Amino acid sequence: MSATTAMEVNAEARRILAVSISKLYASRTQRGGLRLHRSLLLSMVMRSARDIYHSSRECEGPSEAQPAQEEPMDTSSSLEEQTGLPEPAQPEPQPTLNSTELPPEEPDSAEEDSDSEITEDKENLSPTRQSRKRRGKVSAAPDFLPSKRARLEPGEERYAAPLGSCRAGAGESLTALSLNRVIPAF
Amino acid sequence: STGVAGGNDFQWCFSQVKGAIDEDVAEADIISTVEFNYSGELLATGDKGGRVVIFQHEQESKNRPHLRGEYNVYSTFQSHEPEFDYLKSLEIEEKINKIRWLPQQNAAHFLLSTNDKTIKLWKISERDKRAEGYNLKDEDGRLRDPFRITSLRVPVLMPMDLMVEASPRRIFANAHTYHINSISVNSDHETYLSADDLRINLWHLEITDRSFIFEEPEDPSSRSFFSEIISSISDVKFSHSGRYMMTRDYLSVKVWDLNMENRPVETYQVHEYLRSKLCSLYENDCIFDKFECCWNGSDSAIMTGSYNNFFRMFDRNTRRDITLEASRESSKPRATLKPRKVSTGGKRKKDEISVDSLDFNKKILHTAWHPKDNVIAVAATNNLYIFQDKIN
Asked: What does pTM read for this prediction?
């Protein structure tokens, strides 16, 4: 997979995750109640998007075999973002969490522009300059979206990602916040 | 011999259409299930408003014996009403998810109809006589003064206008945690299954000690975000012979031999041109549409629906297939249905329709094939189309 294709796949995976989250929220208010089968299918799409998102990020950097990560979710990048630790060994900067959390009110709007815009910025930013503010058309995080720092489940503990590993990116934290939070909500 | 799909000697033609023509469709009128009974004499539909409409096949008229009889309304009744589950604080839709007929054992007809939570057994019976001349009450039902009765008479059965009554005989409620999606009557005529997303309930228990899993391994080269959704099975039907089983997933229909569970024996692509559009279909929820499929009486052909009010037939013997459309435009009496084609390449031929022009709001989810004749019922949103083979 070329770097450009990986970028496209990456953007598409994020868009599909956003659409899926908004569908899950919308399904809570639909008449007749939550549909189990449909909700399961939505969660499977999100898992696929997450896996493909990871493998497309793999293709952007040195190719390494990525072990299938299920539990616990890696929340290390959140920690690093907030403490501002730079990772000079990383080939590209960590994208902000904000760029991938889109409000459920606009599930079908064309996300292409804002995504590619954000992607451009992400690619060109150096780690020390990255901002935690949400970019693009979205200016405020809805209060029902999970906070950036994932709450630890009992028994979990935070651990730092090994330096030099390009696996430790906001991909994991995206996973941690989006999937780990939304699915148990119903 | 020629098949029912694309054969030169065989043509489908329009027979009837039921339902309002109005462009503004009331949601309650959207047909949610279609089912012929065992003889094909009765055709039942259920809609989102919880109503059941049963059509009966009229005998061919003596005046025009060359025409096959028509289906006319036989009975209409409200099967399910919207309910509210106060414990879970959610509304239970009255939409009829499935209707299944029981084999006829006496003069009355029995069917099972189900919404998301409750299955009901309905008895549909005809009444064409009533008793007149009661001793204790007047003709209008008022009780007579006993002191005024001076003589006895025997009530007489008098003919009356045919009345078709539907009465609920049994109500099977509170048995499913999740939404009931299907019911199936057993061949013993005494037990039936009801299934929700997780569990299957067997009513009038019968022990079965073996089960088989039919699963086709996934093709890794076609993996996408939506692999699980499009491989999710939306309908299963046994063949009339009992030897085969047909499954419908989002893009294809597969025929399985019950003796071989590792892969299907036949696979038919319904609308493969949609594979490149899955992302858009996910966004507009169309990817969750649950299409049904059905066999013809001899199991030589299968039929299933698609978008743009198209439906597809596959002939298993000749390997031909045909795409037809249920539309008001082709609804002239005895008009032959013209085969339709979706253009997938760059160049669109005349009469072909491009993928991007397809109307994804016009979906044919429910179809039924008469158990004996070449008569089909196709539900297009709120209209029921009946097509038959051309009688020369």
From this structure: 0.69
